[in-house]
Specification:
CATH superfamily of the largest domain: NAD(P)-binding Rossmann-like Domain
CATH architecture of the largest domain: 3-Layer(aba) Sandwich
InterPro entries: 6-PGluconate_DH-like_C_sf (IPR008927), 6PGD_dom2 (IPR013328), 6PGDH_NADP-bd (IPR006115), NAD(P)-bd_dom_sf (IPR036291), Pgluconate_DH_NAD-bd_C (IPR015814)
Distance between the termini: 46 Å
Number of strands: 8
Structural class: alpha/beta
Order of helices and strands: EHEHEHEHEHEHEHEHHHHHH
GO molecular function: NADP binding
Pfam families: DUF1932, NAD_binding_2
Strand order of the largest sheet: 3-2-1-4-5-6-7-8
Number of domains: 2
Protein name: Putative Phosphogluconate dehydrogenase, NAD-binding,-like protein
Organism: uncultured delta proteobacterium
């Protein structure tokens, strides 16, 4: 089986590295990157990485993908639509086009429609893990017209893929929803420990948060926090507002903390502390129903 990569940055390099580690020379790998021939410093990196994992670099998009069984698009998300529309003219009959980018789900859907017009199977793939650690085995969700056929082919190459029912865009929708938490948690951690370091309490705060997070598992903690938000949001908004005053005294910019207060105030404005007489719902289903009752979701 042969694979081609459009864009040879971190994603394509890591997947290629994994393929070579597991399958040696039994897979044919080609790639095209717009930086080739540019003379820019990044071109050197592209060429060095390709040489390391023995990927053949093509001089054009057409040459890179025309003979591939599976084409992976790994450009920046903003260019996914433009690149896909160009690439569909060069994908061979029977091949599958897999878009690995973080493009808007609506763009993935549009690309799926555009490829369907040419009779080409399209896959929206969303990576959910740490690529440099997992390489080609990074967990992926896939949707779109070519997803069902792509899953067994990708699994043959030890790729960790899960089928999501629905058109292109569904897999990316899940990833982007998840990203609000995963990237938001990273930003919140950075801000918390900027504050803790300035206050000289970073070790105590780390130990305290670790103890809280380790109790009962994530799902239990998330359910408890979401349900409690409906009755405790107002009090907690005041608490974080006090934290912001201290942050400003220490010259730590409260970006995430300010957003936290805004979200807590929005929850408090639902008025459920009084309506529920201070008793939080016990399940996520109950919390969701209360959100919907007030058109919060």
């Amino acid at each position: 089986m042969s694979f081609a990569f459009i864009g040879f940055g971190e994603v394509s390099y890591c997947i290629s590295k994994g393929f070579r580690k597991d399958f040696g020379e039994t897979v044919a790998l080609t790639a095209y990157d717009v930086m080739l021939g540019s003379g820019k410093p990044i071109e050197k990196t592209v060429r060095e990485r390709a040489a390391e994992v023995r990927v053949t670099l093509a001089d054009s998009l057409k040459e890179a993908i025309k003979d591939a069984d599976i084409v992976f698009c790994a450009v920046q998300g903003a260019y996914s639509l433009e690149v896909g529309r160009s690439a569909r003219d060069f994908v061979k009959a029977g091949a599958i086009y897999v878009d690995l980018t973080t493009a808007n789900p609506a763009h993935k859907f549009a690309l799926g429609e555009a490829f369907a017009e040419k009779g080409i199977e399209f896959v929206d793939a969303a990576m959910l893990g740490a690529l440099p650690v997992s390489l080609h085995k990074v967990p992926m969700l896939v949707s779109g017209t070519g997803a069902a056929r792509a899953v067994p082919l990708m699994r043959e190459r030890n790729m960790d893929v899960t089928l999501v029912q629905g058109p292109a865009g569904e897999a990316s929708k899940i990833k982007l929803t998840r990203s609000v938490f995963m990237k938001g948690m990273q930003a919140l951690l950075v801000e918390t420990f900027l504050f803790a370091r300035k206050a000289g309490v970073e070790n105590i705060v780390m130990d305290s948060i670790t103890e809280s997070m380790d109790k009962g598992g994530f799902k239990t903690m998330a359910e408890r926090m979401i349900c409690a938000d409906l009755i405790h949001a107002e009090r907690r908004s005041h608490e974080v507002s006090d934290s912001i005053l201290v942050m400003r005294d220490l010259e730590v910019e409260p970006i995430m903390a300010s957003a936290t207060v805004q979200r807590l105030k929005a929850s408090a404005a639902l008025g459920y502390r009084e309506e529920l007489t201070g008793k939080a719902p016990k399940t996520l289903a109950e919390a969701y129903a209360l959100w919907e009752k007030k058109n919060y979701v």
